[in-house]
Amino acid sequence: MNLQSSHVAQRAALYLRVSTVRQAEHDVSIPDQRKQGETYCATRGYQLVDTFVEAGASATNDRRPEFQRMIEAGTSKPAPFDVVVVHSFSRFFRDHFELEFYVRKLAKNGVKLVSITQEMGDDPMHVMMRQIMALFDEYQSKENAKHVLRAMNENARQGFWNGALPPIGYRIVAAEQRGSKTKKKLEVDPLHADTVRLIYRLFLDGDGKTGPLGVKAITCYLNERRIFTRDGGRWGLAQIHAILTRTTYIGEHRFNTRSHKDREKKPESEVAIMAVPPLIDRDIFDTVQSKLKSRNPNLVPARVTSGPTLLTGICFCAKCGGAMTLRTGRGSAGATYRYYTCSTKARQGKTGCAGRTIPMDKLDDLIAGHLEERLLQPERLVTILGGLLDRRQDRTERRREQLAELNRRITETDQRLNRLYDAIEAGLADLNDSVLKERMAGLKAIRDQATADAERIQLTLDSAGNQAVTPDMLDAFSGAARDGLRLEGGGYRRDHLRAFAQRVEVADDEVRIMGSKSELLRTLVAASSGKSAVFGVHSSVLKWRARHDSNVRPLPSEGNALSS
Predict the structure, then answer these.
(1) At what angle do helices 215-224 and 193-205 cross, to 10 degrees?
(2) pTM of the prediction?
(3) CATH classification of 170-294 is 3.90.1750.20, yes or no?
(4) Which CATH number describes the domain made up of 11-150?
């Protein structure tokens, strides 16, 4: 009688992994691992029951779908296999703590991990050797990551794109060929660049019918007018905020800003700046950042934006840079005195700062009086705003040129479509031809996108045309602004003052007043078009102080003004 062997072949599962999608696409590793794994199982008498393939996943963490599926199967009861076969332990994990954790987790369920190229036993010495190998694998992985990141940072600094989807308003183009590798750069995407410019304009100026719009209002504006995202979707608040804060649009794309593992911000010294064609003027971008910051309740206390004191939040000590804050005191007759003093001096005394203390009404009168006498005069406004108006005119001319190009593209596309229609009517082309259908659909898409872009640019030009600054506008604005600063019962309108001065510095013998040209122009246009200017906490990008001697005011002493 023949006796059958009682030996039952052990069941095995292969786990195959490559680090990058590029390796997987070029079949440089997975087929080789599979072949070696199948040969290994055959020579050991293992029955191969399953194969888990991880294409393009790092072994530094367990966020791998096939790995998790394999672990779930290996820890289920009963397990569908007895052995997990890998090419090397680094294919399984490159973190020695995690490697041991999952090895023990499988072992508790009777499943063993074996390596084709690093065969180990179960005795303590072999366990220690496996752990040492895992430590070296982990070290090598981190060193490789450092070298790769260093190369990518240098690539970005040279102006080349490292991959991923570019910010909206840009597209990837081939820049140069280095051996078999094509280096790529970003260029402005004409189909979506105007959407980015529109978002900035809405945030600062509105749509010509309202005042400046916030992030949520801009989101609603775009979605209501069916101005879609790059992939045809609807806009969200995070997308709009990202566009308004991304330095890429001023020509400085920031690479390597966060850790890929925990998303923690990296220090500025590790960030690589990549030069790209700018979409937004730096002045406009800086003004937007200041407005966003001023609206952040975590950064700007409510009392700074709504308190009754004229200069709270914009007045600073010229010596130490500390804020000039309001203090009160009582005289011998019981009268209450109010004055601005350096906050550093108030907290630490003269050893902290020897900055000035000045009565509130005197400093308020000095600032408001200078704005009335010097800044809010038509001839001074012309001097200050001249360069800004010239740049606006240049932008208008560029938009007109772009509009003409879009109209030319629309006309040309319509002509091509008409020629195709004529060919179909004449029987020279078959409407059911797939290539012809695809060509017609492409031409229609180009025409529709160009038409939408042309309508947005035309709306911008119409709005800009209504906002032309004239001498009569300047005269009317300067008079209304001077009157608007004053309250009937004495005192000043704080919201009006903030439209003209965004920073005041108090020194021993002078007061320096600084403001933003863009802020001033927006206030002028809003007031002249019959809309109420939006006041409050404005930009701290300070530029209308064009000449040092144009607005430096002598600081009054307790009784008389000090000479300059």
Answers:
(1) 130
(2) 0.42
(3) yes
(4) 3.40.50.1390
